[in-house]
Amino acid sequence: MKKCLFIDRDGTMINEFPPLYQIDSLEKVSFYPGALKYLGKIYEELDYEFVLVSNQDGLGTPTFTEEQFNPAHNLVINTFKGEGIVFKEELIDRSYPEEGLDTRKPGIGMFKAYLNNSEYDIPDSYVIGDRITDVQLAKNLGCKAIWIKNNPDLGGTETKDSPEELEKVVALATTEWKDIYDFLKKEARTVLHTRKTSETEIAIELNLDGSGKASIHTGLHFFDHMLDQIARHGLMDLRIEAKGDLHIDEHHTIEDTGIALGEAIAQALGDKRGIERYGFALPMDDAEAKVLIDFGGRNWIVWNASFS
After folding, report:
1. In terms of residue numbers, what domain contains 36?
2. What is the pLDDT of residue 278?
3. Which of 10, 109, 116, 232 is deepest in the core (most CB within 10 A)?
4. Domain count within the chain
């Protein structure tokens, strides 16, 4: 299923221009700090469709003509496109608040192609915007909000839910695009995974962008130690709870833990965007070992070992 970022334009991608809050000339266009850089990283590294969503009050009327709007808007879109960022769709409402149209944010009239559509994972999608109406839109859609909270009063007259109710929808409140990138990347590369067979029951919690913290309990102390090293030197947070038929022998527990950990890593990597096919070797004090792991999905093992 596809996840979306429904991204506001003014105050989010570009700076607002008070007091009219109308970008009707090229001179009024300035980009929100960090938006180009971090939206580019999100687009390249994470698995989201980008949809632009914007209210443009009175667009197409004599006070805000298409000829005034298009040059500035095209500059914004083409600048992001030049950085490799392409929007699947642009949803722009032209009405005034007093018209009460369902197509105007926080109404969901423009989003019907995404709702009740089995191709889209709306609960794990986000609305990113600078107004409380963007938070209300997220609640109305049934997804989460990332609020660029420079002015919490903006849009307050167009919401129906209480601030306390809307706060429950906010996954992140910030003024920095770097925070948004860090949050989405961490969210995407964190997984809870379980594997249950007739011999074992494995539960794994994994954060690929952690700090090396580990809590490993397999019932096999040396195996716990080796798994701890993966977390410590891989700078990933890893929790493993394994229950196996150790009264018979250890091989089911070791085998199924390895399978479950591989499945968890595959889930956390998603479509593997941003992954390079190179790594590094880490010689230890008392032994030399080289392990090459290919996340391309092709199974292969070469085992050269001598025992005495």
Report:
1. 3-186
2. 63
3. 10
4. 2
